[in-house]
């Protein structure tokens, strides 16, 4: 035989009950001899709790009672033929009246005992099982409703009763004997004590009922039908990438469910384990899927852990004091006390010095635990051998679980790296001696982020999601979006990276969408749905969302964003930027930014600060990291100046070329911003700093291209007038170069920690001789590349290549 248990959502609506009927009929027709256990319709147990509490406080409950009645009546109207409806309505109405009387009693007494509460809660399962059995009777006349409180015998621990095994076994066996060949619908969740008073088995306890019946009747399998595809690697409501686990051992399932995976109630595993009956967790709404099988032995999964679960609300109590040292009985006394008073200790850690014990409890038990400790250890406290503990609240437990963990070193390292990299502070750690589980206590507000980060770390082959906040939608920003849009599927497929742009801001508007802005229509979305831009607000919102693997992109040329970088790193967010301001300001700022990023384990990538998309910063860093020593760097890093000198040959005048460069949009509105060399100087400064030199911009020896008269001209027009007058000067330069078979180049140089930039003449043997268009070139002379320097050359400007460089940096984040 088989036990089929259906949870609240599976019997929550007319549509879902139809699915249940089909699964049960299928099994019955195949002669699998199913026994069905149903939960209350979804939401009903919570409503009953509410009503009981309301009654005890003298508040009305009849509105909710009507809701419950109507919820069931509605199903009857839709799923039972009219001519059979009446007796069912009558019976349900009688039960509702019964419930009403009980609630009235509670209201009169203004008192809700655990016993009365269990009686009230039992109606949920009684309603649903009676109702569904009557629906099924239309198709399978052998259907029969069973109130399990007559068969499951328990102690009197109302709300969380424990089974009396022998008696229960006898009663269930007798039931099966008298009801052979019947299709039984058995109420989950409820039992009764020796006086016949109704008890409940704990929230989620219908799973347990199924396992008890399965174990007594020697079922071939216990199937738990719910609304997800089995036990998943994490809570799917928090971790969207959680996936279904095909096989789990009883121990693994137990650990995962104990630490919060509520898809199955932890005690369920015990009866199944004792009789080695497999449990399957399956999806009522996708019955063709196999879901998860829980069995004696775990499988050899590809992953070192099976899953990550969590309890979102936990309090910890920390006991310290010299009185604990060497006193072997101390923790015994403490935990016996808590056990006796039914305080469930979720997790314990003890420092090796025995100076302190930290344990976690449900928040509702915390104050009581303190009072108990104060009474039990009164003497020790008075003698100052123990410090009166305090409760720490708003915490969560996160646990990684799996039997393979035992055989795989480095699991805790991986866990702590993922947490640390995302700035999540760990308050306490516990590793069970079984090594099936490592648990950490963290702040509650970090839980969602932690679960996702740890999930990404352990299931690395899975797609990793980067959450991007992009500032600046000019040429580079817009081009980047275009590239990201085009490459989205490719990245997902080939690099297992999903990039979601979740925040966009320009100087006018800003927009957030945690599910990812559609980059096919971001302009429209920003325009129609965006709020008024506010940089501080943008950054605060980004921090508040607390997303894992988060990246801030500064695609502006503005000074302001850089003032936030340090704060952003401190929030464990990586930065990718084409903006040079931050790295070329004071050296102290450069150093502090790099230091902060390193300390917080996040990335700071700015390849496009030098030579647009050309790999220059990366090459320099790789050389240094691999132990090479930089002897000299020579470079032409201004596309504009490069263009001007490359074309300053033959008959054209310098004046004409500058004019043309401006017309082509190669120069700033005032061409002196390029020809003055300041931008070039910034790039050299960044390279020198990355090469390990603590230099300031004032240390750079910046040689002029333009004569003084041009530089001091008061307007752009006047500058051009002066440039025309300086024709002679430039022609002389050009002629001198031509006569010697040389060309004019504006070259930056880093050597022995000194940076200089100057106009030079180079001949055909120099690597910079043949340069065309607006190309950049850089040569690294190093210990390894001494004879022939390492040269990088190519287009050093343009939106397409710059955005491509930002894109490459983005993909490298967290790689
Ligand atoms: P039922 O009403 O069928 O008993 P529950 O609500 O008790 O269902 O349990 C199923 C729910 O458990 C799922 O909808 C899911 O949101 C939640 N859940 C939490 N953690 C996990 C997990 N690791 N795997 C599967 N489901 C989980
Ligand atoms: N109806 C009960 C609850 O909601 C038992 C169960 O669904 O398993 O806790
Ligand atoms: Mg459940």
Automatic annotation (TrEMBL):
Q: Which residues form a coiled coil?
A: none
Identify the CDD domains for this entry: AAK_AK-HSDH-like, ACT_AKi-HSDH-ThrA-like_1
Q: Which reaction does it catalyse?
A: L-homoserine + NAD(+) = L-aspartate 4-semialdehyde + NADH + H(+); L-homoserine + NADP(+) = L-aspartate 4-semialdehyde + NADPH + H(+); L-aspartate + ATP = 4-phospho-L-aspartate + ADP
Cofactor(s) for this UniProt protein = a metal cation
MF terms from GO for this chain are: aspartate kinase activity; ATP binding; homoserine dehydrogenase activity; metal ion binding; NADP binding
Q: Which GO BP terms, alphabetically?
A: homoserine biosynthetic process; lysine biosynthetic process via diaminopimelate; methionine biosynthetic process; threonine biosynthetic process
Tell me which residues make up the ACT domain.
400-478
Q: In which pathway does it act?
A: Amino-acid biosynthesis; L-methionine biosynthesis via de novo pathway; L-homoserine from L-aspartate: step 3/3; Amino-acid biosynthesis; L-threonine biosynthesis; L-threonine from L-aspartate: step 3/5; Amino-acid biosynthesis; L-methionine biosynthesis via de novo pathway; L-homoserine from L-aspartate: step 1/3; Amino-acid biosynthesis; L-threonine biosynthesis; L-threonine from L-aspartate: step 1/5
Q: Which InterPro entries match?
A: AceGlu_kinase-like_sf (IPR036393), ACT-like_dom_sf (IPR045865), ACT_Aspartokinase (IPR054352), ACT_dom (IPR002912), AK-HD (IPR049638), Asp/Glu/Uridylate_kinase (IPR001048), Asp/hSer_DH_NAD-bd (IPR005106), Asp_kinase (IPR001341)
UniProt superkingdom: Bacteria
- Subunit (UniProt): Homotetramer.
What function does the entry list? Bifunctional aspartate kinase and homoserine dehydrogenase that catalyzes the first and the third steps toward the synthesis of lysine, methionine and threonine from aspartate.
Q: What is this protein called?
A: Aspartate kinase
